[in-house]
Amino acid sequence: MSIFALVDVNNFFASCEKVFAPALAGRPLVVLSNNDGCVVARSAEAKALGVAMGVPWFRIRDLARRQGIVALSSNYGLYADMSNRVVEILSELAPQIEVYSIDEAFLDLSLLASCERLAHGVMIRQRIQDWLGLTVCVGIGASKTLAKLANYCAKKQLAGDKGVCDFGLFSAEKMNSLLERIPVGEVWGVGRKLAPRLEAMGIRSCRQLRDADAKHLRCHFSVVLERTVLELRGIASLELREMVPDKQQIMYSRSFGREIEDLAELRQAVAIYTGRAAEKLRRQYSLAGALMLFIRTNPHKPKAPQYQRALHWPLPQATADTRQLVAQALRALETTYQSGFAYQKAGVMFYEIVPCALRQSSLFSSEIDELRSERLMQTCDAINRRWGQGALRLAAEIGETGWKMKSGHLSPAYTRDWSALPVTKAG
DNA sequence: CTATAACTCTCAA
DNA sequence: CTAACGTTGAGAGTTATAG
Asked: Nearest nucleotide to A310 by CA–C1' distance?
């Protein structure tokens, strides 16, 4: 039988910021989404003040000022570096690990005796605290869904101790009464649409979902929910996935810092976005066979004339060459663009993705050309890794970028730049 | 009518 | 002074379309 642990960093983005800014200790802190739009992370103090997840920043700005809430723009480079450090530590503490998201990982604890698991969880938590200054909670269960739920219990202090909760130690009665107290919407896979529908059927608690008729739910909902029910019963239906398969689609989209009406500016944005997406494509050694470009006005301004369109655009041949991809994306843009609208967002998605190794030579380009293109792109990527993103780029990407996303409260690159670290007096 | 493509919905972090 | 609201990806299920 498999045993899973879910390790999740508390208030991840906010906690990363606090590690490097001791002055923020004890203060309410929120981290904002791209473009400083919404709250995407809150410190414990900010949660205590009632700041909701996902609330638009402008709506709470005044309240924040009155309460002394600190707001920071998201610093994804910092969070990615800290995440990698967490993964490094966890990799030493389990034979198999699935990195589920930037702040969460599943671990395989099947090889531990049942009496050792809780202590192992405590050790994991202690080590990450000591080595990184981040606090994690650990949930342990016989399926990924149960491990998730145990983690929730640890975090909410509904069960377990010191941030670690092992369902394997609980009697059937204790599990029953615990699951009865947890709303069905807290179950992994039950979101804001499913929860009300389940409640309408009388399924309000985790226990009721666990004990419901799985086949019946499959008919009314989906095979996914049926699996969830099995998982809640401790029948592992989802495996640990160590190897992450290549992405089947690669997307880069951003809201602009201000609205754009001008085609020239839109062209520049699309060129840059396509370049970023192409870097991701090459990072997994793939080629794209088609792209999708979308542009749209601001739906939050219903009085303004609205326009949004997504255009699917097959490529003449699968490629990862930024020059070709940008050229095609710009052609798609010309087709999509309508003047007279204030555009708020654009995005580029690559799909029909295949590994480089499967490259099909086309009638119109020789193998030599393709190898040249590949070498050139690799060189560009290497230069940009060494000298920073954008050191080398296409002419189409250059120009005034007054439209770039807002990031007005960005913290320093603590993990990349020695001089960014706070100085403490020696002695 | 079937197989596939295209699109929609849901979820998650 | 005003207006101001994220991104990326997967998978299942449904509908449209081609042959």
From this structure: B7
β-pairing verdict for A164-166 and A136-141? parallel
Q: How far is CA A199 from CA A203, A209, A227, A231, in A?
A: 5, 10, 19, 20
As a rounded value in angstroms, the CA-to-C1' distance for A424 and B12 is 40
Question: What architecture (CATH level 2) is domain A4-8+99-232?
Answer: Orthogonal Bundle (1.10)
Residue nearest to nucleotide C9 (CA to C1'): A249
Residues forming beta bridges with residue A6, ordered by sequence position: A106, A139
Secondary structure letter of residue A304 according to DSSP = S
Question: Could you give phi then psi for residue A409, rounded to 5 degrees?
Answer: -130, 45
CATH class, A250-397 region = alpha beta
Q: Å from A397 (CA) to C17 (C1')?
A: 39
DSSP H stretches of helix in A140-242: 144-156, 172-180, 194-200, 206-210, 214-220, 223-232
Query: How far from A130 is each of A89, A124, A167, A307, CA to CA, in Å?
Result: 11, 10, 26, 52
Query: Residue A102, CA: closest nucleotide via C1'?
Result: B13
Look up the pTM and report it. Answer: 0.93
The whole-angstrom separation of Cα A113 and Cα A97 is: 18
Residue with CA nearest C7 C1'? A253
Question: What positions of strand B are covered by protein, i.e. any atom < 7 Å from a CB?
Answer: 7, 9-13
Sequence ranges of chain A with CATH classification 3.30.1490.100: 250-397
A200 touches strand B (CB under 7 A): no
Give, for all 427 residues of chain A, the pLDDT tens digit.
899 999 999 999 999 999 999 999 999 999 999 999 999 999 999 999 999 998 999 999 999 999 999 999 999 999 999 999 999 999 999 999 999 999 999 999 999 999 999 999 999 999 999 999 999 999 999 999 999 999 999 999 999 998 999 999 999 999 999 999 999 999 999 988 889 889 888 999 999 999 999 888 888 888 889 999 999 999 999 888 888 888 889 999 999 999 999 999 999 999 999 999 999 999 999 999 889 999 988 888 888 888 888 888 888 888 999 999 999 999 999 988 999 999 999 999 998 888 888 777 666 677 888 889 999 999 999 999 888 888 999 999 998 888 999 998 999 999 988 888 887 665 4
Cα–Cα distance, A164 to A350 (Å, whole number): 41
Helix (H, G, I), strand (E, B) or coil at A160: coil
Residue intervals of chain A classified under CATH 1.10.150.20 are: 4-8+99-232
